[in-house]
Design brief:
The chain has helices at about 15-25, 25-35, 65-70, 85-95, 105-120, 140-145, 160-170, 175-185, 195, 200-215, 235-240, 305-320, 365-375, 410-425, and strands at about 5-10, 35-45, 60, 75-80, 100, 125, 150-155, 225, 245-255, 260-270, 280-290, 290-300, 350-360, 380-385, 400-405, 410, 425-435. The chain is of the alpha/beta class. The protein folds into 3 domains: about 5-135 and about 305-340, NAD(P)-binding Rossmann-like Domain (Rossmann fold, 3-Layer(aba) Sandwich); about 140-300, Dihydrodipicolinate Reductase, domain 2 (2-Layer Sandwich), CATH 3.30.360.10; about 350-435, Alpha-Beta Plaits (2-Layer Sandwich), CATH 3.30.70.260. The strands form 2 sheets. Strands 7, 8, 9, 10, 11, 12, 13, 14, 15, 16 and 17 form an 11-stranded mixed sheet that branches. The chain has a 6-stranded parallel sheet with strand order 3-2-1-4-5-6, sandwiched between helices. It is elongated, with a radius of gyration of 24 Å. The chain binds L-homoserine (HSE). L-homoserine (HSE) binds near residues 134, 188, 189, 196 and 201.
Length: about 450
């Protein structure tokens, strides 16, 4: 049988990795797919740029539309990133009856509902495994492997750059900016690295995971998103003294009142496997009612790790080329007409535990005031450390650092308690609050 011809948009880190993996593993891939797979046409912004791959017989152009419009090409692999041109090309490919493979999480998170509707109407597939957690086949695991379960929650380290930064800060005491530069050099970071450190990239991925876990439409704008830029080495150390690690987690949870979708720094017990996921590695914990907790671990970014997911998607598409569209796995795991409109819970209504850090004047009654405020809101304290003030300060200036871990409370009550604590004369500066999850049940 003739090889399937693939058009590639983008020859950067992941595009180059995809060419390399498809070339190197061509024989094994053909045995798996049942026919050869060839990239015959590719678009790149700058044709003179040095690449990590050999482009050999691939026809090259700077115009992605030429690739999409090439009548020989049956599958378009979109690896240009961004939202405008990528969306235009993906919609054009669908309109022309071509299947699409993409690693573009921003595109799927923002426009997936529209893209999947168009693909369904045209009877083509849009595969996006590489959009979440790089090389980890988490979409396949949740959409197919766990299809018998009622999924209760999932929690993941889904941004490699952020995890790399937190790990280097903890292990080497490195400074935030230097580690970020290193992540950019290694090709992990987004074109705009604020997407990594402010949690936007993780929120894109979380909205995709939540959609396929709970059978809801993509709702990226409803993800509560907080980055890691305010995490200090001090917080990392205090968390460690209390038996916790700080990780930047994406959490999606089904509750009786709605679905939680949130990305924020989180204390997790250091004995949890996921607390020990370091560097650029990603991991996703998924709790199903039948299977219990399951965990998926691997490289979340990088040329060939991401290409691994892209190529697996291409193989999946090739295997399903002749299947009736209605017999394919639905894009969002649930049949398109069976998606649920269950509400997304506002952050004020989320229930979780907290790490609090504050600077208090070293005088009698301060701790009593703080515990009274917490007690009035039914906030129970699980652990506490008070650090002696430095000797060098005068009596007026002497403040003690107080760190508290609380039991579960609704976020709205915690917000009120923090406002009242900050209003106390004896409290200097803002209260640091980091959410805490035990991830056990
Ligand atoms: N910037 C992303 C990360 C790349 O660091 O995880 C993979 O999506």
């Amino acid at each position: 049988m003739e090889p399937v011809k693939v058009g590639l948009l983008g020859l950067g880190t992941v595009g180059g990795g995809t060419v390399n993996v498809l070339t190197r593993n061509a024989a094994e891939i053909t045995r798996r797919a049942g026919r050869g797979i060839e990239i015959t046409h590719a678009a790149a912004r700058d044709l003179k740029k040095a690449r990590i791959c050999k482009t050999g017989n691939i026809k090259l152009t700077t115009d992605p539309q030429q690739v999409v419009d090439d009548p020989e090409v049956q599958i378009i692999v979109e690896l240009i990133g961004g939202e405008t041109l990528a969306k235009e090309m993906v919609m054009r490919a669908i309109a022309k009856g071509k299947h699409v493979v993409t690693a573009n999480k921003a595109l799927i998170a923002n426009y997936g509902n529209e893209i999947f509707a168009a693909a369904q109407a045209r009877g083509v597939m849009v595969a996006f495994e590489a959009a979440v957690a790089g090389g980890i086949p988490i979409i396949k695991a949740v959409r197919e492997g766990l299809a018998g379960n009622n999924i209760e929650w999932l929690a993941g380290i889904i941004n490699g750059t952020g995890n790399f930064i937190l790990t280097e800060m903890r292990d080497k005491g490195s400074n935030f900016a230097d580690v970020l530069v290193e992540a950019q050099r290694l090709g992990y970071a987004e074109a705009d690295p604020t997407f990594d450190v402010e949690g936007i990239d993780a929120a894109h991925k979380l909205s995709i995971l939540a959609a396929i876990a709970f059978g809801i439409p993509l709702q990226f704008k409803k993800v509560y998103t907080e980055g890691i830029t305010k995490i200090t080495r001090e917080d990392v150390n205090y968390a460690e003294q209390l038996g916790y690690r700080i990780k930047h987690l994406g959490i999606a949870k089904r509750t009786p009142n709605g679905i939680e979708m949130r990305v924020h720094p989180t204390l997790i017990p250091e004995r949890r496997l996921i607390a020990n996921v370091d560097g650029v590695m990603n991991a996703v914990l998924v709790k199903g009612d039948a299977v219990g907790p399951t965990m998926y671990y691997g490289a979340g970014a990088g040329a060939e790790a991401t290409a691994s997911a892209v190529v697996a998607d291409i193989i999946d598409v090739v295997r399903m080329l002749t299947a009736d569209p209605e017999n394919r796995v639905p894009h969002l795991a649930f049949q398109a007409d069976a998606l649920s409109n269950v509400p997304i819970l506002p952050m004020e209504e989320v229930i979780t535990c907290y790490y609090l850090k504050m600077q208090a004047a070293d005088k009698p009654g301060v701790l009593a005031d703080i515990t009274r405020i917490l007690g009035e809101r039914n906030i129970s304290i699980e652990a506490m450390i008070q650090k002696e003030p430095a000797e060098s300060f005068s009596n007026e200036e002497r403040t003690a650092t107080i760190i508290m871990l609380t039991h579960k409370v609704i976020e709205g009550s915690m917000n009120q308690a923090i406002r009242e604590i900050e209003a106390l004369d004896a409290i200097k500066g803002p209260v640091t609050r980091i959410r805490m999850e035990h991830l056990s049940r």
